Amino acid sequence: MVMQYSVIDDDKKALILLRPYQVHAIEAIREASRKRQSGYIWHTTGSGKTLTSYKVSRNLLQIPSIEKTIFVIDRTDLDQQTTSSFQSYAENDMIDIDETDDTQELVKNLASDDRRVVVTTIQKINAMIRQFDEGRHQKVYNRIKQLKLAFVVDECHRAVTPERQRHLEHFFTNSLWYGFTGTPIFTENKREQKGDLAQTTEEQYGDCLHQYTVKEAIHDKAVLGFNVEYQTTMPGWAEDEIDDERYDDEGHMLAVLDAILNRSRRKLGFQNGVGKTYEAILTVKSIARAQAYYNLIKQVKNGEKSLSISENVKKVLPDFPKVAITYSVTENEADSYVNQAYMEESLEDYNAMFGTHFSLATIASYNSDLNDRLARKKERFAFREEQLDLVIVVDRLLTGFDAPCLSTLFMDRQPMKPQHIIQAFSRTNRLFDEGKKFGQIVTFQTPDRFKEKVDEALSLYSNGGETSVLAPEWQEEKAKFLEKVHQLLAIAPSPEQVPDLDTATDAELKRFAKAFQEFDKLLSSIQVYSDYDENVILREIGLSLEDIENFAGQYQNVIEELRRRRKEDQEEEGVLLDIEYELESIRTDEINYHYILSLIQALIENRENLIGKKEKSLVDNYIEDLNKSNPKLSSLISKLWQNVQADAKSYQGQSIIHKLDEMIELTTQQKIRETADYWQIGEDELQFVVDNYRIGRDKQNGEKAITDSQNYLAYKEAHGDKALPKLKYKKALKEDYMRMISEDILPLRGR
Questions:
Q1: Do residues 215 and 463 lie in contact, with contact meaning Cβ atoms separated by under 8 Å?
Q2: Are the CB atoms for 576 and 518 separated by under 8 Å?
Q3: What is the Cα–Cα distance from 201 to 178, expressed in whole angstroms?
Q4: How far apart are CA 164 and CA 522, in angstroms?
Q5: Whole-number pLDDT of residue 256
Q6: If we measure between CA atoms, which residue out of 205, 64, 204 comes closest to residue 148?
Q7: What pLDDT is attached to residue 79?
Q8: pLDDT given at position 97
């Protein structure tokens, strides 16, 4: 029973139990197939359609009247995630799932007597039928044509058109069809008429067998809601008076880039620190405009435009934004030559950024690498050096792409059809971490028209629950925040008037703590809105940043006191309080040490006389800030900075980053040597573990070699009476070198 509704994910090494709505969908299809009826499943994007469709494909084979199931996926450049998911699920399954690489393999799989799932694309099925029409594969023609099949179609509108489906139904006369979609096509947004072909999902596949809308998914916390901001770069203009060409103007594009690059730090998770920021997609109307934006960003980064990237951004991510572009490159289009030339240039940039070697000949591999890099599901993409910040697209990645760390969709284009709006929005609302509260959407054209179209789409796809899908608008959320400010200040008008730890009752302390938690949540929430202006808000509430930080300090003291009292008195009464709540709004941006080094390098190269007091103070302050989050690295940079000040001339023409790398390597070697000498183990073996260390793993590569290199007798002789017994020695050794790596070496490497 359990295995009917669970999947072993080989990649994650985990048993995945299906949610109730997935179970109901599987059973609905099972019942329909027994009646020889087709139909479709409406499960909102992000709710696990691939997992559900996998179990459907697998479980349908338990029905004697079905000989094979064919799982049809979308075109090649979008099927990689689906296929890899299937392979991971099928690794431990008793039924093989074939990803057919060519038509010959497809014919062989369909003609075999095995009851199996065949994963393929519509293009390969079409090619097989063309070959039958040409008289090929005649020995198996009747066998394949008469198969009792069930087609399971993921993203069913992209993968199979009504015209193509009719053609396949004429060939496979004993076929059932089960489509999966997050955005069905209804009468309200039906396709254009083409003869008597299906115009809606119901006409193409049959009845809706089960539905699970975005409203229900948000309620169940399966996905996030949306925070949509409608902006314009042309205030005062009537929307119907703005020609589309005006959006090609560089002034408009620079205003859009200013919003993305300088006013979206909260949206992009800068408060999380290096390697933990979120990503974004910028979608535009055409390949030409995508190329123009890509080139403009490069010029902004190079200081060639009036727009510059703010210091507040660069001090966290000095290399921001790491940007890529992706679009379809074909040989048939009129602009193909120009598009290929542009793509070659962007591939060179990508190769330089990540040490890859892609070319137009390997464009499919580039798209696959970009997808993986944006999804960040593989361990190596957890580090800043391997991450992207922004990808510019026209239509690619806006459907059927899953990247939980993608937080924001910037749209410099006119609104699309309702189903395409929901599909595009849904790239952003995957669950990720505590800091990601909503999928963030920012539009830059015709705000009134865009809002009207978004409201229509949400009404269509949330069954009347659009208000539960969208985040509150700015004025509404700001009003809630001001109310929480009033409640907090009513309890404690200033940080100095917080209830006294020695004399206040539990109830008084809890009231303050709860009020500050609610204040903090709303302050964190309003900070992601583009309308948020820190100086304006602080003036309005009559508090300074220092006041808020002091309130936060008092709050931490109150929480510690409540924890102490709870240990002494286990009874809980009065105000309900989440004592483990982590503050969100008062996190300060983590200083990236590369930014400090770039300042030092600039001071050295531009120095005419001595380094001025102002510049010295700036670097000193940044080093002091870094010391709060990474004291080990801060100490080395501080030492290097002192050496530079003492003799700046000797550093001219040299790379400060290289100098720091040398200091880090010397310190690392010293730590390895000291640890190896103390425990009497091989220095080379310990070096290997350090170089191949994987964060979060208890077992590391090379541990056995360290064990083999142990010289316990030498250790005992060196430490005499203080030496540990042999059994304790082995445990303490590992604990010490793991601590040394995580506390002494990784911080020096900025990890």
A1: yes
A2: no
A3: 11
A4: 51
A5: 96
A6: 64
A7: 44
A8: 55
Instruction: Give the closest residue to 602 by CA, choosing from 534, 533, 652.
Output: 652
HEC readout, 123-159? HHHHHHHHHHHCCCCHHHHHHHHCCCEEEEECCHHHH
Question: Rounded to whole angstroms, how far apart are CA atoms 145 and 606?
Answer: 77
pLDDT at 236: 83
Tell how strand 39-43 and strand 14-17 pair up: unpaired
Number of Cβ atoms within 10 Å of the Cβ of 663 = 15
Q: By the 8 A CB rule, do 589 and 315 touch?
A: yes
Find where tokens 């949206």 sit: 267
Q: How far apart are CA 284 and CA 528, in angstroms?
A: 23
Return d(Cα 115, Cα 149) in angstroms, integer: 11
Helix, strand, coil percentages in the chain from 3-state DSSP, rounded to 5: 55, 10, 35
Q: How far apart are the first and last CA of the chain?
A: 45
- Provide the pLDDT for residue 345: 94
Map tokens 């094979």 to a residue.
68
- Widest distance between CA atoms in the chain: 94
Paired tokens of 653:
């023409």
**Secondary structure element (H or E) that encloses residue 346, with its range:** helix 336-354
DSSP string, 152-211: EETTHHHH--HHHHHHHHHHSTTEEEEEEESS---GGGPPPP-TT---SHHHHH-SEEEE
Sign of the four-CA dihedral 477, 474, 464, 26: negative
Structure tokens at 157: 């509108």
Query: Residue 473 phi/psi, 5° resolution?
Result: -70, 165
- Tokens 């309003």 correspond to 526
- Give pLDDT, residue 305: 94
pLDDT of residue 573: 54
Residue found under tokens 């066998």:
143
Residues of the chain with confidence (pLDDT) below 70: 1-3, 9-13, 74-101, 330-335, 463-468, 567-576, 584-592, 606-612, 614-615, 750-751
Q: Which amino acid is at 536?
A: V
Two tokens, residue 425: 């929005």
Average pLDDT over the chain, rounded to whole? 86
**Token duo for residue 710:** 């142990």
Q: DSSP per residue over 368-392, as a string?
A: HHHHHHHHT-SGGGGSGGG--SEEE
Which of 290, 291, 270 lies closest to 279 in space, CA to CA?
270
List, as one string, the DSSP characters of 551-566: HHHHHHHHHHHHHHHH
Residues whose CB is less than 8 angstroms from the CB of residue 474 and which lie 6 or more positions away in sequence, other chains included: 229, 526, 529, 531, 532
Candidates 500, 497, 474; CA nearest to 230 is 474
Which residue from 557, 563, 561 is spatially nearest to 580, judged by alpha carbons? 563
**CA separation, residue 595 to residues 265, 611, 646 (Å):** 17, 18, 21
DSSP H or E stretch at residue 393 = strand 390-393
As a whole number of angstroms, the distance between CA 194 and CA 255 comes to 42
| Residue 311, token pair as written in the block | 């210091």
DSSP label of 65? T
Q: Tokens in use for 4?
A: 């009917």
Strand partners, 470: 226
Cα torsion at 626, 629, 631, 636 (round to 10°)?
-40
Q: Is 539 exposed, middle or buried (0-12, 13-18, 19+ CB in 10 A)?
A: exposed
Measured distance CA(484)–CA(519) in Å, rounded: 5
Please answer whether residues 150 and 178 qualify as being in contact, where contact means their C-beta atoms are separated by less than 8 angstroms: yes
Parallel, antiparallel, or unpaired: how do β-strands 6-9 and 14-17 relate?
A: antiparallel
